[in-house]
Amino acid sequence: MSDPAGIDPRGPRFGASITSVLLLATAVVGFAGASLAAWWMLAVIAALFAWGAFAGIRRHPYGLLFAKLVRPRLGAPAELEDPRPPTFAQGVGFVVTAVGLLVGAFGVAPAVPIAASIAFVAAFLNAAFDFCLGCWLYLLLVRARVIARA
């Protein structure tokens, strides 16, 4: 998409790489038995997902970091992409991590590392294989007319 309001498709992949590392660390800490530490780690990640979902992918800290430090060192992207699918994907990440936090807060300690693991799989798919699971879900919902295109 050559829309001037589009985003560099490498930006969300950069953010997914950082998120993957954080989620993997959270899952490891949680499965190792440090429930409270894992809960706080996941709370920070959930806040970052909420930031991306509600403020928009362009205003996300990883997007700003990519725009200021990484993108100037790269060539221009072949094309820009619509920011709505990655923004929706941030919302999906927020829901998954928020559910893990909520269930964990009610005493089900394994919910936190399990939610971190589920979110890790999605972030890793984006970081390693350029497959955004949340974006794919967005497109399915648009095609099914559950979400309006514009």
UniProtKB/TrEMBL annotation:
Keywords: Membrane, Transmembrane, Transmembrane helix
Signal peptide: none
Highest rank taxon of the organism: Bacteria
Pfam families: DUF4395
Residues that span the membrane, as ranges: 12-32, 38-57, 92-112, 118-141
Domain DUF4395, chain residue ranges per copy: 7-143
Keyword Transmembrane helix listed: yes
Entry protein name: DUF4395 domain-containing protein
Organism field: Agromyces archimandritae
The organism's taxonomic lineage, starting at the top: Bacteria, Bacillati, Actinomycetota, Actinomycetes, Micrococcales
